From TrEMBL:
Its cofactor is Zn(2+). Residues 150-365 form the Peptidase M48 domain. Residues 497-528 form a coiled coil. InterPro entries: HtpX_protease, Peptidase_M48. The lineage of its organism: Bacteria, Pseudomonadati, Bacteroidota, Cytophagia, Cytophagales. Pfam families: Peptidase_M48. Keywords: Cell membrane, Coiled coil, Hydrolase, Membrane, Metal-binding, Metalloprotease, Protease, Transmembrane, Transmembrane helix, Zinc. PANTHER family: PROTEASE HTPX (PTHR43221), PROTEASE HTPX HOMOLOG (PTHR43221:SF2). The chain crosses the membrane at residues 21-44, 56-79, 216-240. It comes from the Bacteria. This is M48 family metallopeptidase.
């Protein structure tokens, strides 16, 4: 089988040259610092020995040792990275062999032959949605060939076809296969050296602490060494940003290059499909884990989480109108934007990977066709897959300490519980999510007697407009944050079109106008919904009741908006309690907070008193709030906070935030469910 050779792009070469230059500058600076430290050590050692030789006593020995230690500690600091070792934690990793898994190993054989690399030293299975090539490394790894290990997540194999898994693994091996990729390893290690010198100082810190504790004279020498080391770190920090930025840019180009290698092995479509589905698979995997985490107190576990992952993945696909092929969601870039609810791509110069849009567009541009002959689920490559899935699941739950005997949740029970939660936490499923973030509108008098076309309500066009408005809201917020930031990128992408820095403000204005138009369209739709519901309720003699219920909901909505603003105001006013603040400022801040505290107590009292909201309260929360309402608190008595008073305040704030939302949620859900009979045909 022919080995694939993919020549590096001009952009890759340029990034590699810039990274190499920055590394060369660092090496020159490092060697200079090392030679200076060596000279300092020699001078101080000579001085220290001379002092000891003048008159042998405990004091001259200590003084000499203190002087000598200055140079030695600085020298140790500069060479400590040589002894640093990066070791992967293998908890949760299950090693497999060729005898155990011949089909999977045959696939790996095929990949390593095509990309021109060596077979992994070891192959491991893990529970998650991931695949990676890894190895234990130290300084000598820069010069010695080291065989890599391969990790494959069962959650990944449960979400990809065999051809798609082949593409993902080819990408991972692609990083180490081509000569053009070697520069990436050197840049990576050089970057790790600087990171070690700047940030990984725990063991070195322990060493100097032990040495300093020997005697106060030694301590003086250690302090001098620390000041010198801090100076060296400041010099290194100057270069670190430049080197790291160049490394990250090269890292992104390496991802494109590895994608190209994978596309030659398995085809552009196989890798693009895998990349677009992995986020969805990961979300589904963690949704299942979060479900069991929430139920730790009930000691609920399951024997196999992976069918549950598949069900969640298909459920998310159904909600977002993503088609299935062989039970796997076929996510397009358009659907990926819908799920992520954004059309905006901002290049993150600190990112190690290109954006999903960039990678998929790059693969489509390559347009390399390979026959997709193996469309079965990748999990079927495993021998005895059910045993492996259950083993990985058992390993996950073994990490949890349960207080009582565990209860096994079946697949059917899991599905029922999730659907029950969804029903409980949604306003009314029949609305298909329309009112999740939109609200019923007041009835326009002019519409009360107007013929409204029922087919115009809850049409596919309206849901598309709702989706567009959601995306516009998200992207406008991101653009506003971007414009306010100190570093605006040279360009961004919106809806797959390049937008230069000078055009960003114009784009923001266009999106705001589009949002205004879209929001107006939705509001008019909601007015027609209310009017038609009123007309149909009136026809059955219930018009006044409907109008009164809507009016009551709108009052609660207005209160909810006021309470939300109050919560934001409270957190803003109390932000100083989470940071070191001078005593005088603390006193002033709390004096300014008193009117806000009064508003909080008034709003809490109202929530407690309204009769129709009594059922929403838990007894414990009611007692906590009443304690806060009845008390007069002094939160700070110079020089310290009153912890008990602050706890009472923050508990009351958290309960208020929870209850004001719950009141609005329950009233809105109740109204929407009562409105359903008048809209059943339109919603179907």
């Amino acid at each position: 089988m022919r080995t694939i050779v993919v020549p590096p792009s001009k952009t890759f070469k340029d990034a590699a040259i810039k990274a190499s230059i920055s590394i060369f500058i660092f090496i020159v600076v490092y060697i200079t610092l090392f030679l200076l430290a060596l000279g300092l050590t020699a001078v101080l050692s000579t001085l220290g020995v001379s002092i000891m030789a003048l008159k042998v006593s405990i004091w001259t020995i200590l003084l000499g040792a203190g002087i000598i230690s200055v140079g030695i500690l600085v020298l140790i600091f500069l060479v400590k990275f040589v002894f640093s070792k990066n070791k992967t934690n293998l908890d949760g990793y299950t090693e497999i062999t060729r005898t155990d898994q011949p089909q999977l190993f045959a696939l790996i054989d095929e990949i390593v032959m095509q990309v021109g690399t060596s077979f992994p030293k070891k192959v491991y299975l893990t529970a998650d949605v991931n695949a990676s090539v890894f190895y234990d490394s130290n300084f000598l790894s820069m010069f010695l060939p080291i065989k890599k290990n391969l990790q494959i997540g069962i959650g990944l194999m449960n979400s990809l076809t065999q051809d798609e898994l082949k593409a993902v693994l080819a990408h991972e091996f692609g990083h180490f296969s081509q000569k053009s990729m070697k520069i990436g390893s050197y840049v990576y290690y050089a970057n790790q050296v600087i990171h070690n010198l700047l940030f990984q100082n725990d063991s070195f810190g322990s060493l100097i602490d032990k040495w300093a504790n020997l005697h106060w004279i030694i301590t003086l020498g250690v302090r001098v060494a620390i000041y010198i080391i801090i100076g060296i770190q400041k010099i290194l920090q100057f270069f670190y940003k430049l080197i790291n930025l160049n490394y990250l840019k090269l890292s992104r180009e390496m991802e494109f290059h590895a994608d190209a290698i994978a596309a030659h092995v398995a085809g552009s479509d196989a890798l693009a499909n895998a990349l677009l589905r992995i986020d969805l698979a990961n979300t589904a995997y963690y949704t299942v884990l979060n479900f069991y985490e929430k139920n730790i107190s009930k000691a609920q576990i399951t024997s196999n989480i992976y069918p549950q992952q598949s069900w969640i993945m298909k459920s998310i696909a159904e909600i977002n109108d993503v088609p299935l092929n062989r039970d796997l969601p076929q996510v397009t870039l358009e659907k990926f934007d819908k799920i992520s609810q954004s059309k905006l791509v901002v290049e993150d110069k600190w990112a190690t990977h290109p954006s999903m849009n960039e990678r998929v567009q790059h693969l489509h541009k390559l347009n390399i066709h390979q026959q997709q002959a193996h469309q079965d689920l990748a999990i079927r490559l495993l021998q005895n897959p059910q045993d492996i899935l259950q083993h990985q699941t058992a390993q996950l739950f073994a990490l949890v300490q349960y207080d009582k005997a565990t209860e096994v949740v079946s697949y059917e029970q899991f599905v029922d519980k999730i659907q029950e939660e969804k029903t409980h936490n949604s306003y009314a499923p029949a609305y298909k999510g329309y009112f999740d973030w939109r609200h019923p509108a007041p009835i326009e008098e002019a519409l009360k007697n107007v013929d409204i076309e029922p087919e115009s309500l809850f049409s596919s066009e309206i849901f598309e407009k709702l989706e567009a408005v959601t995306i516009l809201n998200n992207d406008i917020n991101t653009l506003q944050q971007l414009i306010a930031s100190p570093e605006i990128p040279d360009f961004i992408e919106y809806d797959n079109k390049r937008v230069t820095q000078s055009e960003i403000n114009n784009l923001l204005e266009e999106l705001q106008k589009a949002l205004e138009t879209g929001t107006k369209t939705l509001f008019e739709h909601e007015q027609r919904v209310s009017a038609l519901s009123f007309q149909r309720a009136t026809a059955q003699g219930q018009g006044q009741q409907y109008e009164a219920a809507l009016s009551l909901l709108l009052e609660t909505q207005q209160l909810h908006e006021q309470n939300y603003e109050l919560v934001q105001q409270i957190y803003g006013a109390l932000q100083f309690t989470h940071v070191n603040t001078p005593f005088e400022e603390i006193i002033t801040y709390f004096e300014d907070f008193l009117p806000i505290e009064k508003q909080l107590k008034s709003a809490l009292q109202h929530l407690l008193e309204v009769e129709r909201w009594q059922a929403y309260w838990e007894a414990e929360d009611r007692v906590s709030c009443q304690t806060f309402l009845d008390g007069t608190f002094v939160y700070f008595s110079n020089p310290e906070y009153d912890t008990k008073a602050l706890n009472s305040l923050f508990t009351a704030i958290q309960i208020f935030e929870k209850m004001e939302w719950k009141v609005f949620f329950e009233e809105k859900r109740s109204f929407l469910q009562e409105q359903l009979p008048w809209l059943e045909n339109e919603l179907k």
